[in-house]
Amino acid sequence: MSDVSRPSPAGVRTAAVIPAAGRGVRLGPGAPKALRALNGTPMLIHAVRALAASRAVSLVVVVAPPDETAEVKSLLDAHALPERTDFLVVPGGESRQESVKRGLDVLPPGYDIVLVHDAARPLVPVDTVDAVIDAVRAGAPAVVPALPLADTVKEVEPARTPGEPEPVLATPERARLRAVQTPQGFDRETLVRAHETVTDNVTDDASMVEQLGLTVVVVPGHEEAFKVTRPLDLVLAEAVLARRRLNDGF
Length: 250
Known about the structure:
Blueprint: E1 14-19, E2 37-38, E3 41-42, H1 43-52, E4 57-64, H2 69-78, E5 86-91, H3 96-105, E6 113-116, H4 126-137, E7 142-148, E8 155-156, E9 168-170, E10 178-180, E11 184-187, H5 188-197, H6 205-211, E12 216-220, H7 231-248
Parallel strand pairs: 1-4, 1-6, 4-5, 7-12
Antiparallel strand pairs: 2-3, 6-11, 7-10, 7-11, 8-9
Pathway: Isoprenoid biosynthesis; isopentenyl diphosphate biosynthesis via DXP pathway; isopentenyl diphosphate from 1-deoxy-D-xylulose 5-phosphate: step 2/6
Enzyme class: transferase
GO molecular function, one term: 2-C-methyl-D-erythritol 4-phosphate cytidylyltransferase activity
């Protein structure tokens, strides 16, 4: 485990933005995805706690569904969160990119490092959070945690009609591919510039920095930082939490 008690270097502060305004339709009807219960606690609270577990993170900005802002504020107030960390809630936009931009817009001066984290990755370990922060501190303008792929990947010609067979175009070299997770970490000035100038071909915040011509580096991700998008993912997340309680008293 990393030493989460270590203080931040003088003058270097880290803030985290959690875009949580998505509806998460693949999980089925009901509350917004980030507010779905995981072991009796909303996924969003798990995600906030995961980032606040790092002593380097002194501010967490939650970008909430516009019609759920008051509820999200109440949730944060109702759950035990580290007193050393400040929390803000702002309404989200029509897209994830717009929601992240709204979170960036409310960051006070003095935060040099910004993390962007999916609320749907509620179980990311603090070691991963700290590894991303450390890489930005070391000079990288953008950092992503990622895992090697276990499966062979095929590039295909997408079918025009769902369910139709799709012809394979190529088989990329798996050793050169990674499955990217969050939190993604950035030099604040770099991320702000990316959001001000890049509007096309946006798949994640790191891809925006790539379009600026800057280098994005990868640090090891973690298998427990998976994204909860489908009902089976909820079952897996519950199992992870059960194992943590058994092994660590989590």
